[in-house]
Amino acid sequence: MRLQFILSEIWIGLRRNLSMAISVALVTMVSVLFLGLGVLSQRQVDTMKDYWYDRVQVSIFLCTAKSDLPNCSAGAVTDAQRKEIRSQLDAMKPLVRSVFPESQQQAYDRLKAQYKDSPSYRDIKPEQMPESFRVQLSDPTKYDVITSSFIGAPGVGDVQDQRRILDPLFNVLRGLSYGALSLAGLMVLCSVLLVATTIRQTAFSRRRETGIMRLVGASAFIIQLPFILETLVATMVGTALAIGLLWAMVKYGIGYLADKLPINFITTADVLTVSPWLTVIAAGLAMLTAWFTLRRYLRV
Amino acid sequence: MALESIHSEERVQTAAKPQGDVIVVEDLWRTYDMGSEQQVQALRGVSMRIKHNEYVAIMGPSGSGKSTLMNLIGCLDTPSQGRYWLNGQLVSELDDDQLARIRNKEIGFVFQTFNLLSRATALHNVELPLIYNGTPAAARLERAKESLTDVGLETRMYHKPNELSGGQRQRVAIARALVNRPSIILADEPTGNLDPTTSLDIVRLLDRINRTGTTIVMATHDDEIVDQLRKRVVELNNGELIRDQHRGVYGAQR
Ligand SMILES: Nc1ncnc2c1ncn2[C@@H]1O[C@H](COP(=O)(O)OP(=O)(O)O)[C@@H](O)[C@H]1O
Ligand SMILES: [Mg+2]
């Protein structure tokens, strides 16, 4: 009965304060949305890294007759040098997972297949292509072990890590996600301030009612409860909307991309994983803000 | 004579320090900070004792500190300095919840402006203190009706405050103050918004309540009423207690 009374008070409070409640819900929605976007894009980068680092290789380019790299002044790689490099690679077994030798002709064929219609590669000849060992590592972060062992070795023109080609992409994505997180931080600050202002104003406009509650002996908790619950309802509505939006964005936006592109994307499962955290953060911040504001502006 | 009323089992049980008195205030100060180093000293060292079942009129011109003193006695406010024992318990030692319980069980408030919830019926207004102490619904309804009947409003239970006259509103407030059978009723200018005849009715009602064993402290500047009552008169001026007289009248020699 007392619970029913409190609940009906909250309902009346929300209705009387509808525009305030809506603005709190919407600002919370935007904050949680940005927070979610930031966290999800971090997960996207991690997913892509897992996928791509598994596939990237370290390429050891061998000297060819035509190469003008400073290491290749002695001319094309000899059979003995090639054998030496290969056996050195095989000796690094746990780190080196597999080695594919690629001849000039194979490199030429791959280039032609990849850029079938591109005019810039039309006049290229197989003997202009490099010969290489494509090395796959069990731990792709340890590529510098290969680099330091082979760079400058006889017959080796250059050592290239494909990671370095991908890293700028990942850096951009990381940057974007940090951008989203910073925006989220700003928006969260806005929400906290808005919630505080709303509670302060509501406490002021209800000072007669809370004064009456005080004099008939309602406890501090009971006097504060409607304010806290109203804040919680408004912020949780906002959070639910944000999670719904995130889910729809991943399901339909990313889902559409994932069908078209050979890239591993986050899924709605990732949204479901982060949602509880977003909810806990939003609820926690709302309650904390309410508590501090009420202590300061509501006489109990 | 402390705690001898029929409802003493509901009281906060305390070892009565200053024996026998319900209210003991000692060198009570209340200073309001008005910002920018401005201060208002609403009370300046007031000391007094009120015995159980007394009927005390607190008098003084507007701004003399009557409401400030009433709010301190009612545990709605805390003094800047000084000590206050309520039923032998030092009030400054109580936490917020204990103070709320005291306001709920021990003290009934009546104000000049009635302080009723305007969107609730008389009955619901009277039920409020019982709602906040968790009294079951059936008992609550019964006691609220009983209380409204005690103040003569049995036919107005379902009216909202704006459907009642000033005197009736004040009776609702008194019924609410009585519903938990408090040991003290604090009435701050209860007749301030009422015409003389209605005022007299309200004061007589308070007098009747006083005879059932309830201590009454009434702030007022209505000297006619005080003259008729011939009860104890405490007079404040500029935050200081300037007179404390038993069976006093306002026009008495100072
Ligand atoms: N909340 C407050 N803030 C600042 N000053 C106050 C406040 N309440 C009362 N005062 C001042 O304290 C003095 C005593 O006020 P009050 O106790 O209300 O007097 P009374 O009830 O006798 O008319 C007055 O000067 C008044 O202006
Ligand atoms: Mg006053």
Quick overview:
With 300 residues, chain A is of the alpha+beta class.
What report would you give on this structure?
The complex is a heterodimer of chains A (300) and B (254). Chain A is α+β, with helices and mostly antiparallel strands. Chain A folds into two domains: 2-52 and 167-297, no CATH class; 57-161, Alpha-Beta Plaits (2-Layer Sandwich). Chain A is 69% helix and 8% strand. Chain A is built from nine helices and four strands. In chain A, strands 2-3-1-4 form a four-stranded antiparallel β-sheet. In chain A, helix 2 (18-55) packs antiparallel against helix 6, helix 2 (18-55) runs antiparallel to helix 9 (268-297) and helix 8 (220-260) packs antiparallel against helix 9. The model of chain A has no long low-confidence stretch (mean pLDDT 87). Chain B has one domain (20-250): 3-Layer(aba) Sandwich (Rossmann fold). Chain B contains seven helices and ten strands. In chain B, the strands form two sheets. In chain B, strands 6-7-8-3-9-10 form a six-stranded mixed β-sheet, with helices on both faces. In chain B, helix 3 (122-132) crosses helix 4 (137-150), helix 3 runs parallel beside helix 5 and helix 4 (137-150) packs across helix 5. The chains are: A alpha+beta (300), B alpha/beta (254). Chain A binds chain B through residues 1-2, 5, 208-209, 211-222, 300, and chain B through 74, 76, 96-97, 100-105, 109, 115-117, 128-129, 131-134, 136-137, 176, 180. Bound molecules: adenosine-5'-diphosphate (ADP) and magnesium ion. Adenosine-5'-diphosphate (ADP) binds next to strand 2 and helix 1 of chain B.
